[in-house]
Amino acid sequence: MKLTKLALSLVAIATLFTFAYAANKTIKDDSIGIRQGSLFQEDNVVGDKTQYNTDAAGTSTKIDRAFENAPPMISHDTEGMLPITIDNNQCISCHDPMVAPSVNATSIPKSHFTNFREDVSIDKKGELERDGKILANSSDIKTIVKPLDHLSNARFNCSACHAPQSDSKIVPKNNFIPDFRGTDLNNKSNLMDNVSEGVK
Ligand code: HEC
Ligand code: HEC
After folding, report:
1. 3-state class (DSSP) for residue 185
2. Which class for 169: exposed (0-12), middle (13-18), buried (19 or more C-beta within 10 A)?
3. Do the Cβ atoms of 162 and 73 come closer than 8 Å?
4. 186 Cβ below 6 A of ligand 2
5. Which residue of 16, 20, 137, 166 shows the fewest CB atoms closer than 10 Å?
């Protein structure tokens, strides 16, 4: 019995060494990603020009979602729209659900008109508090799902999550294949229908 255990341990150790050796052989810091050479040098990044789509909004072709309920990439030119500022958010002017259908744009979804964090305040000392009690960590803020009658401030800066896509020739092959649970979910989202999935 003891011998079998010893033999098994030896096999396990040998396997570990084989993997460690293989890993050591295949991954070197100068062959990670598209940077050729040492990761500690800045001047060896292989350049490629950033080429965003120049088709104007209304004439572009939408890009398939990267995975189910991923934020869609901006398919059109964003010239003159970025950066978004408090006085100038052109994205809303076309994507507001009241306007979007008339300009053939996708409406800002319900999830962006929802509060996912309970309201807390900040006291004079800069501490987070709820109902007069100080919260030790921001992780104490509860997750909620509360519909709002306006766009959530957390969604105001669209470009924090939605990005235009640059056409590049040197991007390494991506082997990820998204698995959509519905046939139409590669070009629309249904997050609010299943946002509580798996939550007790
Ligand atoms: C002039 C109106 C207009 C403005 C301004 C505008 N969009 Fe769009 N957007 C559209 C239209 C129309 C489409 C649909 C694709 C097309 O026809 O070009 C679209 C498509 C998109 C998509 C892809 C949606 C999908 O379902 O795949 C995203 C994301 C997006 N826009 C985000 C933005 C953001 C972020 C801004 C601000 C930086 C912005 N848009 C500004 C009209 C606009
Ligand atoms: C915090 C990240 C975040 C911000 C900020 C954000 N979005 Fe989104 N957006 C998402 C994600 C994630 C999805 C896909 C899941 C969903 O529908 O919520 C999405 C989906 C969308 C869709 C597709 C809806 C559909 O039915 O297919 C549009 C259009 C959109 N967002 C526009 C905007 C605009 C315009 C802004 C700025 C006013 C914005 N978003 C800000 C993360 C964000």
Report:
1. coil
2. exposed
3. yes
4. no
5. 137
The predicted-structure confidence for 67-121, as pLDDT tens digits, reads as follows 999 999 999 999 999 999 999 999 999 999 999 999 999 999 999 999 999 989 9
Q: Quick one: which of 167, 91, 150, 67 has its CA closest to 115?
A: 150
Specify the residue with its C-alpha closest to ligand 2, atom 24: 109
103 ligand 2 Cβ < 6 A: no
pLDDT at 48: 79
Q: Which atom in ligand 1 lies closest to the alpha carbon of residue 90?
A: 5
Whose structure tokens read 């007069």? 132
| Residue 1, pLDDT score | 46
Q: Are 83 and 159 in contact (CB under 8 A)?
A: yes
pTM of the predicted structure, to 2 decimals: 0.84
52 neighbors 166 (Cβ within 8 angstroms): yes
150 has binding-site annotation: no
